[in-house]
Amino acid sequence: MSYLTVNEISHVFLSKQKAIKILDSLTFKVDKGEFVSILGPSGCGKSTLLSIISSLLTPYDGLVQFKGHPYDVKTGEIGYMLQHDYLFPWKSIKENIFLGLEILGKDSDENKLRALELLKEVGLEGYENAYPRELSGGMRQRVALVRTLATSPSIVLLDEPFSALDYQNKVKLEELVFHLFKKLNTTALLVTHDIEEAVAMCDRVITLTNVPTKISNIFHLPEELRNDSPFEARQQSLFPSYVSSIWKELEKRE
């Protein structure tokens, strides 16, 4: 049984004039511990798909199953990290990373201590009582990452979380996420526009067509790339050929 199953998912956006079919019978599976990326044209419904997987949005048709059952959002087993950090400016860093624990009723001393250990692990020890305005963009995204992982999610959905960062900070955060997820055996689904990022970080890359959106191809990345960190993967001789193949697939489907 697959950890996450997306089965024949379709979705329609309605306006006063017409109905627009965004997603058209998307089907794929994600195994436990796997890191999968989703690439597609702007506006093809990638973020909509993540919202459906996280149960924030009900699909027009189809079914998403987690561990063989519909996902219960109250469990907090699916974490969601967005492009912007959305830290509350009036709360300290410590208060921000405890927020998910409080919402889910998991704010025990043990869980709070674990969240603070994660903050230390991402290089932000000593910033517990600082406020978001005192941190750089890269540091704020690390706080957002800790807030997401503090509830111990089984799956993390990543919606272009590095796109607002400069290249150096982006790769640094990619490295951090890669190593942390490997250590925690976290299953992840990454939406991105960056082909290099997808190839550098993931085990598989799913490419989508334009609206009405279907899966156009699934690229299984070789072990040499999967086992290397994002920075190291970019140095591999195989790396450019996979980037090129995925780029051509997306061009064909525009």
Give a structural overview.
It is a single chain. The longest helix has 18 residues, at 167-184. This protein has helices spanning 46-53, 93-103, 109-121, 137-149, 167-184, 195-201, 223-226, 230-233, 239-253, and strands at residues 4-14, 19-30, 35-39, 61-66, 78-81, 155-159, 187-191, 204-208, 215-220. Helices cover 37% and strands 23% of the residues. The protein starts with a strand and ends with a helix. Strand 8 (204-208) and strand 9 (215-220) form a beta hairpin. The protein is α/β, with parallel strands linked by helices and 254 residues long. The strands form two sheets. A six-stranded mixed beta sheet has the order 5-6-7-3-8-9, sandwiched between helices. It has a three-stranded antiparallel beta sheet with strand order 2-1-4. The mean pLDDT is 92. The radius of gyration is 18 Å and the shape is globular.
Give a quick summary of the entry.
This protein is an alpha/beta fold. 37% of the residues lie in helices and 23% in strands.
* Distance between the ends: 34 Å
Number of helices: 9
User: How many strand units?
Assistant: 9
- Return the string of H and E elements: EEEHEEHHHEHEHEEHHH
Quaternary organization: single chain
Mean pLDDT: 92
Write the layout of secondary structure elements.
Elements: E1 4-14, E2 19-30, E3 35-39, H1 46-53, E4 61-66, E5 78-81, H2 93-103, H3 109-121, H4 137-149, E6 155-159, H5 167-184, E7 187-191, H6 195-201, E8 204-208, E9 215-220, H7 223-226, H8 230-233, H9 239-253
Parallel strand pairs: 3-7, 3-8, 5-6, 6-7
Antiparallel strand pairs: 1-2, 1-4, 8-9
Helix pairs in contact: 2-3, 2-4, 4-5, 6-9
Protein name: ABC transporter ATP-binding protein
GO molecular function, one term: ATP hydrolysis activity
Domain ABC transporter: 4-235
